[in-house]
Amino acid sequence: MGLMDSQVLVALGLSLLGGLSTSIGAFFVVINPTPNLKTLGVLQGFAAGLMLSISFLDLAHNAINSIGFLKGNLWFFAGVIFFAIIANFIPEPTLSPISDVKTRKKNEDERGKDMTKKHRRQVLFGGIITAIGISLHNFPEGMVVFLGSIKGLRVGLNLALAIALHNIPEGVAVALPVYFATESKWQAFKLATLSGLAEPLGVIIVAYLFPSSLSPEILEGLLGSVGGVMAFLTLHEMLPLAFDYAGQKQAVKAVFFGMAFMSASLYFLEISLPEDLSL
Questions:
Q1: CA-CA distance, 164 to 21, in Å (whole number)?
Q2: Is the pLDDT of residue 147 over 80?
Q3: Based on the number of CB atoms within 10 Å of its own CB, is 236 exposed (0-12), middle (13-18) or buried (19 or more)?
Q4: What is the three-class DSSP state of 74?
Q5: Distance between CA 228 and CA 136 in Å, rounded?
Q6: Is 276 helix (H, G, I), strand (E, B) or coil?
Q7: Fewer Cβ atoms within 10 Å of its own Cβ: the N or the C terminal residue of the chain?
Q8: Pick from 226, 235, 259: nearest CA to 77
Q9: Which of 18-27, 80-89, 100-109, 171-180 has the lowest mean pLDDT?
Q10: Where exactly are the transmembrane stretches of this chain (predicted)?
């Protein structure tokens, strides 16, 4: 086994550690008794914040930095438009109107039980979108862990740890809506774990397929348009849910908390990176 291979294995191990921490988040969701709608709303808000932070402050930002303001924006909005067109063909789940507060308290439990099928679908959709967004985000993180651990085990370990910590709430953000919608602990756990496994996948792809024929400009552009898709989905699907369940004030707080959290964890990732290696 060559040096490269052992390094790939180390990186794989480390990124598995980081990736599987989404399962830890999912585990917290699964051991709790059924969450109430308010918690779901706040968490959807938090997840929306994570997603917006990833799409605006990370993906779009990087695209603009590397291919210029105009091109970066064009790619971003291409993503938005592309998805807006697709979303047109997805039948719109309608939100059930919320009755006045008194009956609402009584209905809360029943509502939790007989959440309309449409609603469940929307919640599930939110979970799946979060899973996809987080997978895409974990991809480059896996690459970074790989490059980091080539530099040395300590660097790789620090990175894997930093990533693991910020993947735990990501796991919660994926698992909760899925669990809520499907009432299946296994489905929730599975989806969250899968979104974490994008991380070792990133390692494998970098180790064996890069440098590939894809020009960095197109790659950055595509990531920018993924940012557009994520932003659109977040505003279109997750925010309305968060508002509906947690109320506007709480939901907005949760969104900014999610954004701050994501930025903080990206910052910690950045400072745990050696100087000559950047995300």
A1: 5
A2: no
A3: middle
A4: helix
A5: 13
A6: coil
A7: N
A8: 226
A9: 100-109
A10: 6-30, 42-60, 72-90, 123-139, 159-179, 191-210, 222-239, 251-269
CA distance 268 to 217: 27
Q: If you write DSSP's letter for every residue of 89-112 in order, what string do you get?
A: HSPPPPPPPP--HHHHHHHHHHHH
Retrieve residue 188's tokens. 């929730």
pTM: 0.69
Residue type for position 20: L
Q: What is the spatial distance between Cα 153 and Cα 73, in angstroms, rounded to a whole number?
A: 38
Token duo for residue 72: 């970066």
**CA angle 137–120–104, rounded 5-degree value:** 120
**Alpha helices, DSSP H, located in the chain:** 3-31, 37-52, 61-67, 69-89, 101-113, 117-151, 153-182, 185-196, 198-209, 216-233, 239-246, 248-272
Q: Is the pLDDT of residue 155 over 60?
A: yes
Contacts of 1 (CB under 8 A, 6+ apart): none
Query: Rounded distance, CA 195 to CA 197, Å?
Result: 5
Identity (one letter) of the amino acid at 266? L
Cα–Cα distance between 2 and 178 in angstroms, integer?
42
Q: Give the residue from 137, 157, 161 showing the smallest Cα distance to 148.
A: 157
Contacts of 277 by beta carbon, 8 Å cutoff, 6+ apart: 144, 147, 148, 151, 155
- The conformation of residue 2, written as its DSSP 8-state character, comes to -
- The answer to whether 175 and 25 have CB atoms below 8 angstroms apart is yes
State the residue for tokens 């899968």.
194
pLDDT at residue 83 above 70?
yes
DSSP state of 197: T
**Cβ pair 181, 191 in contact under 8 A:** no
Residues 155, 174: Cα–Cα separation, whole Å: 28
